[in-house]
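re the bet — no i am not wrong, look at it urself. input seq straight from the record:
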Amino acid sequence: MKKTIFLCLIIALIIGSCSQKAKVNEKAAKIENTLISVALFTDSVGVDPSKVLQVIERRNKAVDSLGYPDAGYKLWLVKGDSIKNFRFMTIGSWPNQAIYDSIHKNKIYLRSLKLTPEEEAFGIKTYSYYRFTLVK
């Protein structure tokens, strides 16, 4: 009986250590983001940044659900008059152009773009948009 319990304990330890190694290997398989998108936005009504962040987080949740947890947008608030006429900037990070395209054409992502009536009243407009690729 003691041998059986001891053997079960050893097997449990081996299984536990294997699953930890699998988690380490998952981190090693992380996809590098080699494409960024940058957008500058005007704000005609002085929207609370936390409200804009909610919209961005909804989009990021959709991107994450598609299997790209390290891709998506970060919202930046323009400080002072460093860039006149702009209030917000987003920087999107993406593995590559093909994945960017597939995410932005996916129905789950497209549904995340739907704005509530309150969000439509924000008065935020995209002024300029750029994409950049990593030089290796």
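see?? The first helix runs from residue 2 to 28. told u. also The CA atoms of residues 1 and 75 lie 61 Å apart. so pay up
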